[in-house]
Design goal:
This protein is an alpha+beta fold and 363 residues long. Helix content is 37%, strand content 25%. The chain has a twelve-stranded mixed beta sheet with strand order 1-2-3-4-5-12-6-11-10-9-8-7, with helices on both faces. The two termini are 28 Å apart.
Length: 363
Amino acid sequence: MTVAAVADRVASGTWSDFGCEVNAFPPAELFDRYERSRFLYPAKRARLAPYWPLILDNWQRARRAGELLHWVASRDEPGGGWASLTSWRSTHAGWQTQHLVSSGTLAGGRAVMLAAQAVRMVERQDVAAQNWFSPANRFAALAFGTIERSLGPEHSLVAPGDYVMVPLALARALRPDGSAGSVAELDGGACPELAELARRCRGAVYARAEGLDRDDLRLADVDRLYRLVGLRRHRRIWVLYDASGAVRAAALAYRGPLGFNFSFLENRCDVLIRPGLDATETRRATDTLLTAACHAYTDFEPAAVPLTTATPVDHLILAGAEPVRPYTRALWLAEAYPDLYRHIDDLYAQRLRGRGVYPRSTA
């Protein structure tokens, strides 16, 4: 399919063009469907149980804002199949797309994914989108883990990493000796040194997708939108300077409505360590930043720092941190939305012809 063909197909860019609805279900009904499709399986449901009333309230509040903060695309098939996809505003013009749930339908999964891209293309307000998935999920790995080949590295990124819950008590007890360097929390203005560190660690796509190349690093403008319905979305950033005053590492502490993502990735602490540091320097930098960043999580209900990192943290696990799972992050810029549309369309066309794996639910 050519760029022109994609443009023709998504010319109007409405959900109904694809047989989909948006925000059609109250969260309680949506979550019930999640359970019946086993996307919300018993072990995950038990893990979320202590926070379930808060999670439900957060989704209900977000629904009041329509598609401004959080949308759920869904499609019911005549034969009983059902599919849905959710996305929420992560940064100024960046969205986290997740929870692809397909129960008994290939066509439904295809419809919600293509509709999502079509609507975003027509609205022309995005900078980027991202999806986090377990590399063990074969369909997610095929759909999102291959986008650099389909979209090109200048417009997309696939970044593997680990996700570890570090108890607040452990983060506070690390007590680094200061040999890693000095730490400072950034204000809301632009920080070119942070943007350059982000590019060195993850590339230009990451820096742009996360809004690290612009003003308002604290996401104050985004927070104002969330406050309209009684929610919060903001970011605190600590940087680690070496003896020469150069930035060698950073911790980006995102805070958002608990349970927007069922793995709590809306509250992740993303640690960036400058390439070239040895194992000891990397460990000291991680510990120093964790000690600072734990201040952003004093009111985080699970009483932990949800750490996402591409560098080893075995010492934290040995000390009592809980390894959640490996996670791979896929990011793509808005310029590549037509290419992603083609990528997903081709992938589902193969599935519908009976080749390859059946699409299972993704994170």
